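Below is a filled-in request sheet from our internal design queue. Each sheet records the structural input a requester submitted and the sequence that came back. We keep these sheets so that new team members can see what a complete request looks like end to end.

REQUESTER: design group, bay 2
PRIORITY: normal
MODE: inverse folding
CHAIN LENGTH: 273
BACKBONE (tokenized):
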């Protein structure tokens, strides 16, 4: 019995160390998107997508500086930020302003060849949204909030559509009718949007965060909590639906607790082929 107790104790210690360490590291995950609608000029076009930074008392400046430096080494054509800039635990207005100033001093060092685009997540509505919008406006980021954006290379173009947060925002799908002939990337913080509105919007590639890959995910097979009414569906790395791909990121920060298990934080590198 003593040996079993010792084994269980060591396993418990190993588990605790694992979930704490995994939450503090990150990886770059590469995804290749093949679609006949991608114009010739956009072959090998590189998109870097991050989401769920949750900057605050746990995710601090040094970590974000490392993330930004790693992103810049990827030499992206465009960068997309998928919302949830601050951690919900940041309560006072003075703290929110201080954290936003610190965060954007770092984020403004991100470099992209064509442009940097962002949407809002649910947490962005909890902590002084107006202050966040001011920081976005002061930066070179282009906010996509129920809006479309053409990306042009010569005579070729692709289209971005950014949707307001599904829960706290006001997604206006009627405003986002798209030209089905153009390769279209739809970005919404919450992937449930793609389930709720799958027959009402034309797109070829969907990008979302929000679920954090479950944050605690038993060997990539099952997460007890998913933040999605679709259960385990949007914990996958890529969801294929008809001629569409929905690519999910596990986010770069963490939720209320700084723990991860088989859901490592990540920077997403997407290559159009």
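RETURNED SEQUENCE:
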């Amino acid at each position: 019995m003593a040996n079993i107790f010792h084994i269980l104790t060591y396993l418990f210690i190993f588990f605790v160390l694992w979930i704490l360490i995994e939450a503090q590291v990150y990886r770059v995950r590469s995804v290749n998107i093949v679609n006949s609608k991608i114009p010739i000029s956009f072959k090998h076009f590189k998109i870097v997508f991050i989401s769920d930074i949750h900057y605050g008392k746990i995710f601090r400046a040094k970590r974000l500086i490392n993330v930004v430096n790693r992103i810049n080494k990827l030499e992206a054509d465009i960068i997309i930020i998928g919302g949830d800039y601050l951690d919900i635990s940041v309560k006072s207005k003075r703290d929110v302003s201080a954290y936003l100033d610190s965060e954007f001093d770092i984020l403004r060092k991100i470099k992209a060849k064509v442009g940097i685009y962002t949407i809002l997540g649910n947490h962005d509505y909890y902590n002084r949204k107006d202050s966040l919008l001011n920081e976005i406006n002061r930066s070179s980021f282009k906010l996509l909030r129920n809006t479309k954006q053409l990306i042009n290379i010569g005579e070729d173009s692709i289209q971005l559509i950014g949707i307001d947060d599904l829960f706290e925002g006001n997604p206006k799908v009627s405003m986002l009718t798209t030209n089905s002939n153009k390769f279209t990337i739809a970005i919404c913080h919450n992937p449930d949007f793609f389930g709720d509105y799958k027959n009402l919007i034309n797109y070829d590639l969907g990008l979302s965060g929000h679920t954090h890959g479950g944050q605690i995910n038993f060997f990539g097979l099952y997460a007890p909590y998913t933040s999605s009414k679709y259960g385990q569906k949007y914990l996958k790395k890529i969801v294929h639906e008809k001629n569409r791909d929905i690519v999910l990121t596990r986010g770069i920060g963490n939720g209320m607790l700084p723990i991860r298990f088989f859901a490592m934080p990540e920077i997403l590198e997407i290559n159009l082929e």
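SHEET NOTES:
- The chain has a mean pLDDT of 91.
- The chain has five helices and twelve strands.
FILED BY: M.R.
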